[in-house]
Design a protein that fits this description.
The chain has 103 residues and is mainly beta. It is built from 1 helix and 5 strands; from the N terminus they run αβββββ. A 5-stranded mixed beta barrel has the order 1-2-3-5-4.
């Protein structure tokens, strides 16, 4: 192998390994937030930390027991964005959610 080929392979190997262990940019783990009743049976999730460029997302699979205005939760999920579609609120597919109880 010539020197350029070796350097190219090493560069690709290092670049490919740099993201190991990090969550993808569309995945959010253990975020705190508040459930908000937007009316007409639509519930949104206001995150304490940004999700992309916003704090408010639409949880596409929010269980009925969490459809309570003002409920504090901790959640994980992945943005469920279709290419070329514009959204008022970004859709978030929840992978886990649980209530947070404050004394």
């Amino acid at each position: 192998m010539n020197r350029k080929a070796v350097l190219c392979c090493l560069t690709l190997l290092i670049a490919g390994c740099s993201d190991l262990g990090e969550a993808p940019k569309d995945e959010f783990v253990n975020y705190f937030g508040t459930i908000v009743d937007h009316g007409a049976g639509v519930f949104l999730l206001e995150s304490d930390r940004p999700i992309g460029l916003t704090h408010t997302v639409y949880p596409t699979n929010l269980p009925p027991q969490f459809q309570t205005n003002g409920m504090r939760v901790i959640f994980s999920g992945r943005l469920d964005i279709a290419p070329g579609v514009r959204y008022i609120y970004l859709p978030l597919k929840l992978s886990s959610i649980r209530g947070v109880y404050i004394n």
